[in-house]
Amino acid sequence: MALGGGPWVVRYMRGKPLLWNITYSTGRLINSRNRAGQEFDPASRSATNLLEINGPDNRIEAYGTYEPLDDNPVTPKTIRANIRSGRLILGSWQLPLPISGSGTFDVMYVDESLRVFRSNGRFAVQVRADRLAARQ
């Protein structure tokens, strides 16, 4: 089971909001085109989480790695994420953030254009960014 490389965008969330969900919702009041998403690189097993604050030039990014907890290709599939660093980007200005930690999430469904994650009782539906851009 592959998570699909490239950027993916969160299109639907259900469950108790995390801080980034609240920030994301508040930011959407300022700029309704703000996005939250992830990018996984299957070759290096690197992961980037991002949250736009007021458009793509202003965002928070968190960087780390991911690994499946077993070799079973069937979903649901538990993945461990290890976040090592982050940064706040405001235009050309960047500030390193002390973001780190480890956690797991379950991949409930994945195909070429859609994936569904479950983590701590929350569900997120993500769409490949290139597929989403083609529809807008």
Q: Mind explaining what this structure looks like?
A:
The protein is mainly beta. It has helices at 19-30, 129-135, and strands spanning 6-14, 36-41, 46-52, 58-68, 77-90, 93-97, 101-110, 114-119, 122-128. The protein contains two helices and nine strands, in the order βαββββββββα. It has an eight-stranded antiparallel β-barrel. A hairpin with a 2-residue loop joins strand 5 (77-90) and strand 6. The two termini are 29 Å apart. Residues 26-31 have low confidence and may be disordered.
Describe the sheet with the most strands: 8 strands, antiparallel, barrel
Helix content: 10-25%
What is the second-level CATH architecture? Beta Barrel
Measure the end-to-end span: 29 Å
Number of helices: 2
Strand order of the largest sheet: 1-2-3-4-5-7-8-9
Tertiary shape: globular
CATH class: Mainly Beta
Question: Are there runs of 5+ residues with pLDDT below 50, and where?
Answer: 26-31
The overall number of domains is: 1
Structural class: mainly beta
What is the chain-wise order of helices and strands?
Answer: EHEEEEEEEEH
Compute the number of strand runs: 9
Cα gyration radius (Å): 15 Å
- Determine the CATH topology: Lipocalin
Tell me the fraction of residues in β-strands, as a range: over 45%
Quick check: average pLDDT? 83
